[in-house]
Amino acid sequence: MDKTLRGAAAIVGVGELQPIKKAPTDKTGYGLQAEAGALAIADAGLTKKDIDAIIIEYPMLEPHFGPPSYMSDYLELPIHYGGMGSTMGASAASMIWRAAAAIATGMCETVLVLTGEVIDPMKMGMMMSGPQGMKMMGPETQYSAPYGIMGAPGAYAFIAQRHAYEFGTTDAQRARNAVDQRTNACANPKAMFYGRPITVDDVLNSRVVSSPLRLLEVVMPVSGAAAVVVTSAERAKALPHPPVYILGAGEYITHSDISQHPHLTTSPVKESARRAYEMSGYGPRDMQMAQVYDCFTITVMITLEDAAFCPKGEGGPWFEETDMTYKGKFPVNTNGGQLSFGQAGLAGGMCHPVEAVIQLRGEAGERQCAKHDLCFVNGNGGIMSEETSLIFGTEDTL
After folding, report:
1. Closest Cα to residue 82, out of 117, 58, 63, 118?
2. What are residue 223's DSSP bridge partners?
3. Nearest alpha-carbon partner for 93 in 294, 295, 296, 381
4. Is there a cis peptide before residue 212, judged by omega within 30 degrees of 0?
5. Nearest to residue 154, comparing CAs of 383, 342, 386?
6. Do 43 and 241 form a contact (C-beta atoms < 8 A)?
7. Low-confidence spans in the chain with pLDDT less than 50
């Protein structure tokens, strides 16, 4: 694999809005993205005129015919390169490495990467239900819908059931992830569940959403937005914050609908992580933390197994034995993750790269990890079908 992407670009600015549960009546998805983008540009010590490229994950409830040009017009910002993320929850991670690649090839120098959405349950329900929803989800759903496996909760519950069948994984073991991430959220004033700790019993006593998954194992969609600024390694050195370098990237897509999943308990992370490690020159034992997509607790378990942080099938015991809080042996989703911070839009995966940057810059406050030079980041799209893995590092890791 060509390793020229390693260290060619760095994240130099981040912006993240406070997530809110209700849909704001005076905001649009593009408007929220623009606000987060302005925060990221300011954080980078730059101005709008310094940005010469935009990569955007389109808000599903907004017009999305040519989102890069739409946002260019919206921001009154001419650009040399426009891109779009279209891998759902993997979009944020995939857009970041595409930004680095565009910079490495000379197409542009500084990229604004945007995600965010206004979540309106009524509109989302109308869009995803009935014939229109079936069209959006593709013809493969004819093989799963008749069996009641519709939507993410049903599909991930199917995966959780299979993991329990194959490896003996228990509900209490999965619950450990929700508890530790809630502990992290209690150290993050921006989190939706700030100041509201939970126990394993709380998780097990919460109502079943789709057996065996319970309410406290399920992501909370919120209205919000997040953005990062990616620039060349050369330019990054002259900016205010310590650069967070993109050392490795890997992507792998295997299927769309759950009925086409090649193996329910093994995800494309196995390949995307392998390629990211190879490009970076580091392995899982070198990582000091992980910020991974967490729409459900089983998602985190399978991701960490397939990224080689523990052997396949041993995620349950590993969850029991490993302190995943910011104070623990191996911190995971130190901002609370989507389970307790909130999933900002349908591609809420941007909160994971943003948190990685904050941690590696040493700016996480109460939740700051003691060791913060190398981080594994993962985005998950579809039903563990579209996976992007990234390795972030500081100057000392180049």
Report:
1. 58
2. 20
3. 381
4. yes
5. 383
6. yes
7. 1, 126, 132
